[in-house]
Design a protein that fits this description.
Length: 474
């Protein structure tokens, strides 16, 4: 066996190399999520919750004898959050090296900030009566809420709007359908795109209605420390007011942890959106392979390393892979987070650190589908040729007109399905052959004329109207 020279340890290189593609190859596509779902974002939200809890207790004079914070002190405390930067991250790392506890490190960092502004006399109100999960559950809720509302939803809405525009543009473009992969009743290209705009839009409306729940009720959800330290306070009412102050929905009854059911609901909805988008990607890929779409070349790009003629549908293939990874992560999160042994275990702590990658792969897929759609042109000639080569699809129309005529008492209209089956099944029928068949049926003149004028290109029914009304195009 050949002995090769030892290699440089890539793990030792600086700046540090990313292990995963989201922080490496695809960083620019998912970077906005870093503000919401990174480890630094988690610590920033923890600091936000700790600061706001301290200010809330002060403003409401919850703890008897504790002085109220001055307005300037509150402003400077909030600057700990608004100015959260590399220096803060380094400070937190130093505290955590001592505490070996990430939430406790945040508590100490807030106390240190309070001390710098002369607030040592109220420092014990930082993290007052809280368990770590009081801080964590509200922080994660704020993180996910921000990621969904400020990053993921805007990108998803833009994609749905792009599909809606394509549906409007091509609502009247006839296209042969392929049910079971076989030629079937014609549709329009815009109607088929409109189906996905409608399906994805429904999922977005569900996601937009998400409730982001939070709790702040102590070590086992009983307010025990709260009620013992300050028995005169209405702690459930205060907790509700504080959670709502953060912009969240209050969960009044929990164990040590907020139950995460809202997360499972949200992730199921996003996974469903992913899977519908995956369906779109596979359909568009297929239409490209059928030559219904032409891919617009990107100058200088290579499709195949050996076949220079190729333009591969890589945007849609990339999207498929990322949607599958995202959905798998969301499925795992949704199934794992709803379960906690008795009053608390830490499976959720590790699981929730993968929320960012789940959103990241979905966001990357949305970007790829959008970019792929923008590089497509409709091949009207191929669409027309496919329709013209499949006149037998009008057999459905002929037998339906015969059924209606027979129901109206026109003689000779018996067994219409069987007659068309004999004419068309497994056979190619051209325009003249079908018209000759129609002329020999004995239909009323108006019905016969209607069928004789019909072509595969015109047999699209109410497709244009349906997509227009459903998507509000008219």
């Amino acid at each position: 066996m050949t002995e090769f020279p030892p290699r440089t340890a890539l793990a030792d290189l600086q700046p540090a190399l990313a292990l995963g593609p989201l922080d490496g190859r695809y960083r620019k596509d998912v970077a906005p999520l870093v503000d919401h779902l990174s480890e630094a974002a988690l610590n920033r939200e923890r600091m936000h919750v700790e600061v706001e809890w301290l200010i809330f207790l002060s403003e409401n004079e919850v703890v008897p004898g504790a002085r109220r914070l001055l307005e300037d002190e509150k402003a400077q405390l909030r600057e700990l959050v608004s100015g959260f930067d590399e220096e803060t991250i380094a400070q937190l790392a130093e505290f955590e090296a001592v505490t070996v506890h990430d939430v406790k490190a945040v508590e100490y960092a807030v106390k240190a900030g309070l001390g710098r502004i002369g607030g040592d006399d109220v420092s014990e109100l930082v993290h007052f009566a809280c368990t770590s999960e009081d801080i964590n559950n509200t922080s994660y809720a704020l993180m996910v809420k921000g990621a969904v509302e400020q990053v993921w939803l805007p990108a998803a809405r833009r994609l749905v709007e792009q599909l809606r525009d394509l549906a409007a543009e091509h609502r009247d473009q006839p296209m042969l359908s392929h049910t079971h992969g076989q030629p079937a009743t014609p549709t329009t290209l815009g109607k088929e795109i409109g189906v996905f705009a409608h399906r994805l839009g429904r999922q977005l409306r569900r996601i937009e209605r998400t409730e982001y729940l939070g709790k702040i009720n102590g070590a086992t959800g009983t307010f025990s420390a709260h009620a013992t330290a300050v028995p005169g306070a209405d702690w459930p009412a205060l907790a509700k007011a504080f959670v709502e102050h953060l912009g969240l929905t209050y969960n009044p009854l929990t164990t040590q942890i907020e139950s995460h059911d809202w997360q499972a609901e949200l992730y199921a909805d996003i996974a469903r959106f992913n899977r519908i988008l995956h369906n779109l990607a596979t359909d568009v890929w297929t239409y490209i392979s059928m030559n219904y779409f032409i891919q617009i070349p990107v100058e200088g790009a290579t499709g195949s390393s050996t076949m220079p003629h190729k333009i591969n549908p890589i945007r849609f293939e990339n999207a498929e892979a990322n949607l599958e990874i995202s959905s798998a992560l969301f499925d795992t999160l949704a199934s794992t987070l709803v379960t906690s042994r008795l009053q608390r275990d830490l499976t959720d702590s590790s699981s929730q650190r993968n929320i960012g990658p789940a959103f990241g792969h979905s966001l990357l897929a949305i970007s790829n589908v959008s970019r792929g759609l923008s590089r497509l042109a409709v091949n009207a000639e191929a669409l027309d040729a496919d329709l013209e080569g499949n006149w037998e699809v009008l057999g459905e129309a002929v037998q339906s007109v015969m059924r209606a005529a027979g129901a109206a008492g026109v003689p000779g209209m018996d067994n219409p399905y069987e007659k068309l089956k004999e004419l068309t099944r497994g056979k190619r029928v051209d325009a003249e052959g079908l018209r000759e068949f129609v002329r020999g049926l004995g239909l009323p003149a108006e019905a016969e004329a209607r069928l004789l004028e019909l072509t595969p290109q015109s047999y699209t029914g109410l497709a244009s109207r349906v997509v227009g009304e459903t998507l509000g195009l008219d």
